[in-house]
Amino acid sequence: MDSLELLAHPVRLRVVHALRGGRMLTTGQLCDRMPDVSKATVYRHIDLLHTGGVLEVAEERRVRGAVERAYRLRQDRASIALGTMESMSADDHRRAFAAAMAALLAEFNAYLDREHADPAGDLVGYRQHAVWLSRDELVSLIGELRQVLLPRLANTAAPGRAQYLLSPILFPVEEAQGRDPSGS
């Protein structure tokens, strides 16, 4: 299974999100984080991610005669490679985006379903902004966002920290004025 097929599924994306930041979780803990998904489905998707090399077994221990595994994300395998992105068809992009949005919606619903969910207190945000950018300004913006985000992506779970899902989405909503649609 290629990385696009492996990662472009809402349940598998939720597993990847849960394990970001160096977390190690058992299948049972992952099931607890996704009460809207059947345990059999979670187990099946964890197996696919493990077989596909996205997850690795971080530790094993005996629990009531069975082996319980804690999984860890392999960061180098948890994204779609640039070469794959460049070769994706429009339908591939639609499918990947739909999976990402389905995962995002499921995560947000799970958050709101928590007994003590407090969107205002938790500084929840879902604003969208339309900005006019030249190609150079866009490249600069992406670089600035990376400078801000990369150090924080290395954060691990610690007292006083909550895991937040940050989903920057960026695409042009119209053609650049004066641009030749043929690309030349």
Termini Cα gap: 36 Å
Write down the secondary-structure element order.
HHEHHEEHHH
Q: Which superfamily, in CATH terms, is the homologous superfamily of the domain at 3-119? A: Winged helix-like DNA-binding domain superfamily/Winged helix DNA-binding domain
Q: Taking strands numbered 1, 2, ... along the chain, how are they ordered across the largest sheet?
A: 1-3-2
CATH topology-level name of the domain at 3-119: Arc Repressor Mutant, subunit A
Please identify the oligomeric state. Answer: single chain
* Structure classification: mainly alpha
CATH top level class name of the domain at 3-119: Mainly Alpha
Largest sheet, if any?
3 strands, antiparallel
Shape: globular
Report low-confidence residues grouped into runs of 5 or more: none
Average pLDDT level: 90
The fraction of residues in strands falls at 5-15%
DSSP strand count: 3
| CA-atom Rg in angstroms | 19 Å
Put simply, the count of helices is 7
Secondary-structure map:
Blueprint: H1 3-7, H2 10-19, E1 24-26, H3 27-33, H4 39-51, E2 55-63, E3 66-73, H5 82-87, H6 90-113, H7 135-153
Antiparallel strand pairs: 1-3, 2-3
Could you please describe the fold and organization of this structure?
- The chain is mainly α and 184 residues long.
- The chain has a domain at 3-119: Winged helix-like DNA-binding domain superfamily/Winged helix DNA-binding domain (Arc Repressor Mutant, subunit A, Orthogonal Bundle), CATH 1.10.10.10.
- The chain has helices spanning 3-7, 10-19, 27-33, 39-51, 82-87, 90-113, 135-153, and strands spanning 24-26, 55-63, 66-73.
- A hairpin with a 2-residue loop joins strand 2 (55-63) and strand 3.
